[in-house]
Design brief:
single chain, about 550 residues, alpha/beta, Rossmann fold, 3 domains, 6-stranded parallel beta sheet
Length: about 550
């Protein structure tokens, strides 16, 4: 609250800047190091979501940053609060997501003495964050917070960490607010687009790959119109499926973990690859084997908002420094060739995708997780899917068929424990949407406490836990590299349905595929945050392989 002399505390100035910049949601785990900021929230119209652990809080904020293209905001306390938050910062960095983490800090007069919970945030987050800064003077809060918004959203987006000395937040000064920030758009030049049109006209087997961030619903629609006019095959990179409606006749599939072999063959055979927005990192590039480094054999066009990414791994024949939003708008001006020689290839690419995702593959045991995902695809086709990391994700990403922008939230950084907090954050942002978290047993318990956050805020998310009693991905690699020598990958799990009920939610257990529909409908009707505990045979390790098969192959290779 402003004093009669027009002064405000540093905490009040800080929260007022969030309002100036359009912030509506903030996630936090409270701490005494930023009490003055917490007090300022009391009188200001920002929804404050109190979380149970800082890792979950930062993942919620990261999901909101993914969804909106504007920085997700999270407050954590000093020391252990900050280090607990680091997984979410790492996700935001690798996923190119705008996020600002405000961290409490010891008083300025105690710095550099290793005071209670003191951390050098510039050193700790220097390589994880896009920018790490500490505010020493409350008069500079508007300036530095404004810069944080621009840094988080400009070029290749990413996380910013802002440290807040406790005494700075209580000091009173008179200072005007900063002007509202507006993201800086990056448009391609006319010469770039003219060169691109010539390359497309000269191609015989072109393919477009969509990835990265800085997309919008309008940009995705523009790319879809371009694909329709040019009748060109379009694939999405690892966990970027919502960038293209899977029903579009040009959609060729997902270039992630365990992709359709026919899609890989198509990309390798292409004579022109246009990568828009993404980096083509380890996962979509299939461990950097898809294209030659540094000079791809194919004509390679790379469109990216971060100039540092152009030529960083692959030397492009045409580098276009532009955001996907600006580039997509510029596509409207391109003209297709009079004769499109690759029409049949595009039609076949989409047919290959449909065939690859149509029916669940047979699985050992009484539960076929693929059939469950296919059922969800038909029952709730517009639901938002959130997941963390693990082999369980392969079924969801292969069989769900995403239809719209912002329908899937998952970490390209491969961080376990992301799905549940992401679902909470997205349901908080869009309460009218159906939000489903698909989790593994080990994955869920990394941030399972955030189910209580869903209960506290009455957010009826539905969590589907695939419980196979193992850390599945690691066991798969273990059987491949050290067959039969199981070590460190077995899990003993709780009754997850009882866990949900203990927290005040709805819980159900599924031990047969046919029982899932009834459990899901009961979860919907409950109106509560829900957990459906799906017990799966651990031998069912991927849609295409079993642990027994992987082990037998590895043993045969060793003997040979």
């Amino acid at each position: 609250m402003r004093a009669n002399d027009g002064t405000r505390t540093g905490g009040e100035i800080l929260v007022d800047q969030l309002l100036v910049h359009g912030v509506e949601h903030v996630f936090c785990v409270p701490g005494e190091s930023y009490l003055a900021a917490l007090d300022a929230f009391h009188d200001r119209p920002i929804k404050l979501t109190v979380c149970r652990q800082e890792g979950g809080a930062t993942m919620m904020a990261e999901a909101v940053g993914k969804a909106t293209g504007r920085p997700g905001i999270v407050f954590v306390t000093r020391g252990p609060g900050a280090t607990n938050a680091s997984p979410g910062v790492h996700i935001a960095k690798q996923d190119s997501t705008p996020m600002i983490v405000f961290v409490g800090q010891v008083g300025r007069h105690m710095r550099d003495r290793e005071a209670f919970q003191e951390v050098d945030y510039r050193a700790v987050f220097g390589t994880l964050a896009k920018w790490a800064v500490e505010i020493d003077d409350p008069a500079r809060v508007p300036e530095i917070v404004s810069r944080a918004f621009y840094v988080a959203t400009s070029g290749r987006p990413g996380p910013v960490v802002v440290a807040l000395p406790e005494d700075m937040l209580t000091e009173r000064v008179a200072v005007p607010d900063a002007p509202p920030f507006e993201p800086v758009e990056i448009w391609p030049g006319q010469a770039d687009m003219a060169k691109l049109q010539k390359l497309i006209w000269a191609a015989k087997q072109p393919v477009v790959l969509l990835g990265g961030s800085r997309w919008s619903e309008a940009a995705c629609a523009a790319v879809a119109r371009f694909a329709e006019r040019f009748d060109i095959p379009v694939a999405t990179t690892f966990r970027r499926g919502p960038l293209m409606d899977s029903r579009h006749p040009s959609y060729a599939g997902d270039l992630g973990i365990g992709p359709n072999p026919r899609l890989l063959s198509r990309i390798k055979a292409a004579d022109l690859i246009v990568l828009v927005g993404g980096r083509l990192g380890e996962m979509p590039s299939q461990s950097y084997t898809l294209l030659e480094i540094p000079g791809p054999r194919q004509t390679f066009v790379h469109v990216h908002p971060g100039s540092d990414e152009l030529g960083r791994v692959y030397r492009p024949h045409l580098a276009i420094n532009a955001a996907p939003t600006g580039f997509a708008a510029a596509l409207e001006g391109l003209q297709p060739p009079n004769e499109i020689s690759w029409r049949a290839q595009t039609k076949q690419a989409h047919a290959d995708y449909l065939e690859w995702t149509e029916k669940a593959t047979p699985q050992p045991g009484a539960v076929n997780f693929g059939e469950i995902i296919v059922w969800l695809r038909e029952r709730v086709p517009d639901a938002i899917l959130c997941n963390g990391a693990g082999n369980f994700t392969v079924w969801a990403q292969r069989f769900f068929r995403l239809r719209r922008f912002g329908q899937h939230f998952a970490p390209t950084a491969g961080s376990m424990g992301y799905g549940l907090p992401a679902a909470v954050g997205i349901k908080r942002l869009w309460p009218e949407r159906t939000v489903i978290c698909v989790a593994g047993d080990g994955d869920f318990l990394m941030n399972g406490q955030e189910f209580m956050t869903a209960v506290q805020y009455e957010l009826p998310i539905i969590v589907v836990i695939m419980d196979n009693g193992i850390y599945g991905t690691i066991r798969m690699h273990q059987e491949r590299e050290y067959p039969g020598r199981v070590s460190g990958t077995d899990l003993r799990n709780p009754d997850f349905a009882a866990y949900a009920r203990a927290f005040g939610g709805f819980g159900a257990t599924v031990e047969k595929t046919a029982d899932f529909a009834k459990a899901f409908e009961a979860a919907e009707q409950s109106g509560k945050p829900s957990i459906i505990h799906v017990k799966v045979d651990p031998n069912a390790i991927t849609p295409m392989a079993t642990l027994d098969g992987i082990r037998a192959k590895a043993l045969a290779t060793a003997k040979g």
